[in-house]
Amino acid sequence: MSLNLGIRRSKPKHRAADKVAELRDENRRLLTQLVGAHDHIAIQEQQLADERSGRSGAERVARCLAADLDMRTAERDQARDEIRQLHAQLAPYLAADANANAITVPTAERDTTAFEDQATAPIDVRELQARFTAGPVVSLHHSPQAADPTHIPAPAA
Description:
The protein has about 160 residues and is an all-alpha fold. The protein contains 2 helices and no strands. The protein is elongated, with a radius of gyration of 53 Å.
């Protein structure tokens, strides 16, 4: 006969069945991670293979373009040399044609019969030069004429 007086423990005893269930759950979680990692690795390997095939295709295209560029550069240089040679041969003919078909204009004479077309005489500025260069420069900074920008000093004696 067992005595069960209703005393309960605060912490249940750890049983082996609980530990086995806990380990099974952990094993399931780790297997799920493993399968997920395997899928991720397979995807990465496929992307790497695609990248390598794309890179090899791009390298093939780059080699073809480089060869085409070299060929077209050689053609351009050859055409440039031929153009220079033909231009040198054509230059005397172009000069002769330009001389033969030159446009000549007689020297023009301006009609100055109208008053507004009369030529003007040059402005004599010697008088102003004599005023400003005749003597030493005098500062008008403190003079009353300094306020008037149109003031011209009197000629030096």
